[in-house]
Amino acid sequence: MEVDPVALAAQLIKCPSVTPSEGGATSLLDSILAKAGFSCTRVERGGIQNLYARFGTEGPVFGFNGHTDVVPVGNEADWTHPPFGGIIADGILWGRGATDMKSGVAAFVAAAIETTRNGIPGSIVIMITGDEEGPAKDGTVAILDWMTENGERIDHCIVGEPTSLETFGDMVKVGRRGSINATFTAKGIQGHVAYPHRAKNPITALVELLHRLQSHKLDDGTEYFDPST
What are phi and psi of 170, to 5 degrees? Predict the structure, then answer.
């Protein structure tokens, strides 16, 4: 079985998979991968359709993670071509998700299927979520929870998000450093402009705090990561 990645990308773009709707994209991949011999499991949670597909039963296990959901189209009248048309014009594939990241999903699925035709020393796992552009609570997280419950694990994983500096595909990033989120509450004291010494403006304190956080040097980075911000 051969899969044309460009044709598959166009098919995926034609699926109106605006988060949280899968728009047929997950079902399309499920069907194609199943025909290619992958064992496919639909992981559903919170109204989100996710897909876990595996070829092989032994290790090592190489994984690929991607998403087929896209952000809303905005004003469709502003589009050069229909956002879900999957049209190729002047050598360019047009549509919502053409870059982020239905093209990446199509390329990896096609490559994975081609690889399995010749036999592989281990397993390939493809994890597709429909919740990356939304709250991201019932997408990849749901797949990971399902994997834990069912004793599934992977040794290495590539996330096929579009990553480039100057030209398409000119770099690969190593993982993600993570983030810390915090909520600060500043309480002020009401007052009158004629008696400023009796009042306390909480915005002033928050601006000073923001300045200190922004100007503080967290680290110098590493060989693999730029400095934290």
Answer: -90, 5
Query: What torsion, rounded to 10 degrees, do the Cα atoms 36, 42, 43, 45 define?
Result: 150
Q: Give the pair of three-digit tokens for residue 82.
A: 């229909």
Distance CA 61, CA 55 (A): 9
Number of Cβ within a 10 Å radius of residue 162: 12
Q: ω into residue 147 within 30 of 0, thus cis? A: no
End-to-end CA gap in the chain: 47
For residue range 72-123, what is the model confidence (pLDDT) as tens digits? 999 999 999 999 999 999 999 999 999 999 999 999 999 999 999 888 899 9
Reduced to 3 states (helix: H, G, I; strand: E, B; else coil), residue 143 is helix
- Whether this prediction's pTM lies above 0.70 is answered by yes
Q: Which residues are catalytic?
A: 69, 132
